[in-house]
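In full, the data:

***
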Amino acid sequence: MRLIQIAHALTLHDGASKFVQKLDGMFQKLGYDTEIFAHKLDERIQNDHIQTMDKFDGTAEDIVIYHMTTGTSFNKWVANYPHRIVLYYHNITPAKFFFGNAWGSWLKCIQGRRQLKSIVKNTFYAWGASEYSCEELRALGIREAKPLAAIVEPEKFLERPLVQAIYDKYHDGKLNLLIVGRGVPHKKQDEAIEIVRYYKEHINPKVRLIIVGNMKPSFAKKLHRMVEQYKMQNDVVFAGSVSNDELCTWYRVADALLCLSEHEGFCVPLVEAMVFDKPVFAYAAAAVPETVGRAGVILSDKDPEKTARIIHATLEDEAVMKQLAEERCCRLKELSYENIFAQVKQDIAHIVSRWGENNK
């Protein structure tokens, strides 16, 4: 028996792709024979353990774990796989967020949710990236759906070398608010600009917004137009797609992380900011509140004035900042490698014990 993980696509910097490889390491540590297959494989990934699907050799004795992230023609293969599977659901962004601005993504998300209904019929056990994701799976009829959080290893971040040029330029006494994520409309980088605009005009002129993440061109144009209109060219940094060393440097430069996204299945940047001991201000959408827990400030709305004043009041309150720092430590312990490994050990033992009866 092998534990075989399958994904539609594995790419170099993608969070889901990294998770697949970390989970594989845990399975091996537990003594299982493992394999990883991908329908599409980024050639930059240097891992001889990962193969393309044309080499797939799974049998009835193997447990297949499929990582679902979006709609794709490959999902039909999964739904029709002759043996029941284990599903890891990373969550699919609701299609409405792409309507009118990214028709390809809109179609993939609609397709994905339809295909999910077929895949769950062939699933006997499921993990979700959050309780939020698990609730969606249970609503589709999966009896056993359990949250399994992303694997975050603080030492892997903290040991990254500083990119001195970035640090020297931007660690200059200004208040740096950081937002990390894809540049698409539902991530709401535009609202972050509005918040920083208010902050600059009414609270503290020495404030800067740093936007990290690959940008959809049409959305990037909108953001740049906003910055020019508000004359904030010196107050907003578009860092774009960055290396791991650069990302960790931006976290070190930041005074706080801002997350205004309308949908997150987990949101790894929230935890990454905690690793660097940065306060988190996040809008209460989808899985965000459960990811943050008590370790950050959850925003009930995103009114620029209200949000800017909440950020300022929090950062100026030593007692609140101390409490948040303590809560960050507690949350990181909950999400530690040791805790996730202990859960994986327990869950896999349960899956293996039920494997035979579900494939008779």
